[in-house]
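Dear colleagues,

For the upcoming journal club I promised to circulate an example of a predicted protein-ligand complex. I picked one with 5-S-methyl-5-thio-alpha-D-ribofuranose because it came up in last month's discussion. The inputs are reproduced below in full, followed by the predicted structure.
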Amino acid sequence: MSFKQFSTDQDVIDFVQTHTAVFNNSPDLTVTEIGDGNINFVYRVDDGNNSLIVKQALPYIRVIGEAWPLSQDRIRIEAKALKQSEAFSPGSVPEVYHYDAASCAIIMADIGHYQNMREALIGRRPLPGVAEELGVLLARNLFYSSDFYLSSSAKKTMVQEFINPDLCQISEEVYFWDPFCDHERNNVNPPLATRAAQWWQDDELKQAVARLKMKFQNQSQVLLHGDLHTGSVFVDPSAENKVKVIDPEFAFVGPAGFDLGVLVANYLLNLAGQARAAGDPAERHAYQQALLTDLNTLWQSLTENFRSLAADHTQDPCLQGEAIVDAWLAELLTDSLGFAGVEMTRRTLGVAHVADVEQIEDEVARAEAQTMCLDIADLLIKHASQFSGMPVITAAVAELSFCR
Ligand code: SR1
Ligand code: MG
């Protein structure tokens, strides 16, 4: 059957009525297009009592149009990655009700009562428990998809099932190419132009980024979400900020530090945004400190949980024991800091910025926050291997950020 884009509300309704029993043939269904991402179309279908989400992948990038074609295999990958995450950490993703290869669409649970983590951070909402839970989820993903746990053949099958060339190419370009040169896709705030030009000439920086890019392209360590920014994380304020992670269409088997790095970067992008955001300076400063405390908590939770899983479930005799786990976690931290610096760079100079900083209306004030992003990125990319633990890094970030 050939692919057909949903072009009317009735198309979406017919699709959910054919493939689920959620609405029991209710005649009063409403369809709302709620997609605010760059790539796909997302619909909420609602009968007043129940609701669900339909996500459809078109053969091109939504925000660019047919000029940037994109394989629809990404929706198969997303459905598979959601099911895999559910197996690793039950309840950590929206339930998938149906995946339809012909329509390139997924029907899944509506988590509309959850709050987007990026919006919560921008609103300076305290998020008790979230950093700890994210540490648990990352530890489980890292462990259960790594060589510590999987047999050789299971690992190779996973690599094969998550080959994701189109989406990896986007990441290779928007993380590791565009923001390190004067690329036409870049979006540089005019007052930042001189700093950007210096960035593109910094050979020490580009050598460190080259090492990270080689890891991204060649190191098949663990199953990654592939786009784990705070807009992909949702928290439930009515259930102790329980976390759900969405949108793993960029999933592939890659370097272990990538997801952690992207997440760390998005905490730090918010921290830099707070420096010039509207509102009481003392409240903003307290929130920045809380973000750094959360990063320490995240790392502590990740390492404790990873160590415990490794001690209990590693079969391979060469991978057993604390020394190898210590070495693996040390490399994870170093790599993640480098990737965090790259994510901060691309969100500052590249095509896709973040609201944490973009919400600063005055372009000079925004450039000051963006300068802070680049200063932190520079520190992380060039000096990642010199940091012995997350508290050392958060202290260095505090020293760099809190005096301005
Ligand atoms: C072309 S824009 C690409 C970005 O949008 C998605 O949200 C991902 O973050 C990706 O890097
Ligand atoms: Mg996304």
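Two points we might discuss: Residues 42 and 55 are 4 Å apart (CA to CA). The chain is about 50% helix and 10% strand.

See you all on Thursday,
B. R.
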